[in-house]
Design brief:
Blueprint (H helix, E strand, L loop, with lengths): L4 H10 L8 E2 L5 H7 L3 H7 L2 H12 L4 E4 L9 E10 L2 E10 L2 E10 L5 E4 L5 H13 L9 H10 L4 E7 L2 H6 L5 H9 L5 H25 L4 E4 L11 H21 L3 E5 L8 H7 L3 E3 L11 H12 L4 E6 L10 H14 L6 E5 L9 H12 L7
Parallel strand pairs: 1-12, 2-7, 7-8, 8-9, 9-10, 10-11, 11-12
Antiparallel strand pairs: 3-4, 4-5, 5-6
């Protein structure tokens, strides 16, 4: 009997062969919005993300993954958001969050053409704003997490793709994502000796929180896989030394908890990754994506892929690697097919592979290139026999 897209993804995560090699382009915002015929503001505000992904994966007839998070109530804070249209296509939002330790302010910009981005982040003066941010970020008890929305979405998705429960990001992204000035201000804080004790305390607190949340989700939902995202926590920006110091211990603790419940862990890791591929296998992460090609990543061609396969050692699944710009947007169908074959040949006889894209598929991507990618993978015999 033919397997479902979700079964093929889970088999790859578990190191098991399927009837077909899974092929999972990362359809995130641009292509689902294009498929549904909505702009980015409508997409983010009016369309349930899992339903948008379901429609897109069904249209292309391929495997895929997506994620969503549960809500943790926090009765110690109150937030108020005001909106202002700057023009017909651009909306600015301003949020004031009131806590027992003071107020936090943040601003965002929403465009009909692009996903939203942050203009102002809440931690501007660390000494002044950190106590309030800590209450906002840690005030809610993960034991009180509302998982009902997660379970409903999991049921609605069914077998069409692998929907994962996302726990959050690595510790650096968690902190720097709230730091005004973003990555630059955040990384300077991590080099400040006066802040190190505070950051160590927050790291331990964040680790415990993610582990608790992972346990709650495993105990109260049927989700097979949980996820940890990525913004700046990668070798291209943070570098392997800081990643190992601040983020690896958090991911490792979560992996141990998830595996204790017989569930799987998927980690998103942007940009360059070769210096930490062996760490992925050591931690026991079940799947990592997207193993990007140069210039954004450092998994270059057939030799780079063979090195990745060797370093993962059959312990972690590789998802990704087809170049989203040079190949999928600018390339021809044969370019797409060639990169797919490189991945398949490098992992020949190895079930721990999902042919995916080096991050999000751009809206400019010709459909014919996506169909060529899927068709080429469908030709491949998944088993070594």
């Amino acid at each position: 009997m033919e397997m479902t897209p979700k079964q093929r993804m889970l088999n790859a995560y578990r190191g098991m062969f399927s009837d077909k090699v899974p092929v999972a382009p990362e359809f995130w915002c641009y292509y689902p919005a294009k498929v549904l015929g909505v702009d980015m503001i409508q997409f983010s505000r009016e369309v349930p993300f899992h339903q948008a992904l379901k429609a897109t994966f069904l249209q292309f007839g391929c495997e895929g993954w997506g994620n969503m998070r549960c809500r943790i109530p926090n009765d110690r804070v109150k937030s108020r958001t005001t909106e202002k249209w700057l023009d017909a296509d651009t909306l600015e939002t301003r949020t004031v969050t009131t806590t027992p330790a003071g107020e936090l302010t943040s601003r965002g910009l929403h465009s009909r053409a692009e996903p939203s981005w942050r203009l102002e982040r809440p931690i501007k003066d660390v000494k002044r704003d950190l106590p309030a941010w800590e209450i906002d970020s840690f005030g809610g008890d993960p034991e009180q997490a509302d998982c009902s929305r997660l379970v409903k979405a999991w049921q609605e998705v069914g077998e069409t793709f692998l929907l994962e429960a996302v726990l959050g990001g690595p510790f650096f992204d968690f902190y720097a994502g709230a730091r005004d000035g973003g990555f630059q201000a955040g990384v300077l804080d991590f080099f400040d000796p006066e802040l190190e004790p505070t950051l160590r305390r927050l790291q331990e607190k964040y680790m415990a929180r993610l582990v608790t949340l992972a346990r709650v989700i495993c105990e109260r939902t049927p989700f097979e896989s949980l996820g940890i995202g990525c913004s700046w926590s990668c070798n291209s920006l943070l570098g392997p030394k800081l990643w190992r110091q601040w983020d690896k211990p958090v991911i490792q603790a979560v992996a141990q908890e998830v595996h204790r419940h017989g569930r799987l862990l998927h980690v998103h890791f942007h940009g360059k990754c070769m210096d930490t591929v062996s760490d992925f296998a050591e931690i026991g992460i079940d799947c990592v994506c997207p193993f990007e090609r140069p210039p954004g990543g450092d998994v270059a061609g057939a030799e780079g892929l063979r090195t990745v396969a060797r370093r993962l050692g059959g312990r972690t699944t590789m998802n990704g690697n087809v170049h989203t710009v040079e190949t999928l947007i600018r390339g021809k169908e044969e370019d797409v097919r060639r990169e797919a074959r490189e991945i398949l040949e490098a992992f020949c006889g190895n079930p721990r592979v999902i042919v995916g894209t080096g991050d999000q598929v751009g809206r400019e991507t010709p459909e014919k290139n996506l169909y060529a990618l899927i068709d080429e993978v469908r030709k491949w015999n998944p088993s070594p026999s």
